[in-house]
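name: query_chain
kind: protein
chains: 1
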Amino acid sequence: MTAPSRDRTGRLRSVTVGFRVSPEEAREIDSLVALSGLTKQDYILRRLTDRKVTVYPSVRVQRAVQDQAMLCYEELRRIEHAGDVTPELAHVLSVLAETFAALGREAGPSAVDAEREAMRQLRRD
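structure:
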């Protein structure tokens, strides 16, 4: 007989929960899971129980961000009209933007912010 499945904190996880999603929803979930750095089970459990999903930088997360950014870039190049952006793509783009914004806050002002501030400082005498 198979040994009981326990998580890192020793909780016995013996109940299986399953549900069906469309291929588009599955791709969106996979993208968000990859960007979080969590396992799919942990990500879905946190989202369903309304707990915060905190992303800790790692090589795996960095690779996922790069991959998702490239996929979004390729999809945006394919799209001819803004109305063609799917809700799934819009959500992944939103998560990517939040991730990049959070990374920017930790690194200090960006070159663009510095340039904007320099432009604000220019005055005619």
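note: Residues 19 and 26 are 11 Å apart (CA to CA).
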